[in-house]
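Exercise 7. Predict the joint structure of the components listed below.
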Amino acid sequence: AQSVTQLGSHVSVSEGALVLLRCNYSSSVPPYLFWYVQYPNQGLQLLLKYTSAATLVKGINGFEAEFKKSETSFHLTKPSAHMSDAAEYFCAVTPNTGGFKTIFGAGTRLFVKA
Amino acid sequence: ETGVTQSPTHLIKTRGQQVTLRCSSQSGHNTVSWYQQALGQGPQFIFQYYREEENGRGNFPPRFSGLQFPNYSSELNVNALELDDSALYLCASSSKREASTDTQYFGPGTRLTVL
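Solution:
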């Protein structure tokens, strides 16, 4: 069965610092991987997705993620944090065997300090 | 292009009651998925509808049911409400049956509180 683990329920960085949000997946075959952002009282917005093309995926708002099969990881990074990045971030997987069910991690709350 | 909309925004019910939540999918999308997001947790897949038929279901009891209409809008019905049903219910639409790679567009959600 597939699963997603996000390390750290809360991450705090200073404005301008590197953002690193960790995500590891468990799957017998590499799934499709996603990062979503959720601002307070809003739905989820797709940041980026990996669909077995390039392993380094660039998304919106300066975020990117690298798929590492050997580490079963898909960590999200941004070189320089902005106050507006403060939000909840979710890593998610869906099977690449024609499935439909998206499995989300528990989320990581990002705090950005001035 | 109209995005995904959900109604109502907030809802308060008591245990044992029934509730219906509504979702209008994004223009051109024929697939709708419903998720339950409890406080402090990630969304949990409830079920998906494709062209008015249930296309898959997560680990939710039968008292969670749904419908999709010819215009691809959808309803989520929950019978015999329990306290643990209190959550944010999210609807997401996409344009393919197998949404593995297709982007899901999420609505703002309906916050359900069961007292």
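Discussion. The interface with chain A takes residues 4, 33, 35, 40-45, 48, 55-56, 58, 90, 92, 97-101, 103-109 of chain B (CB under 8 Å).
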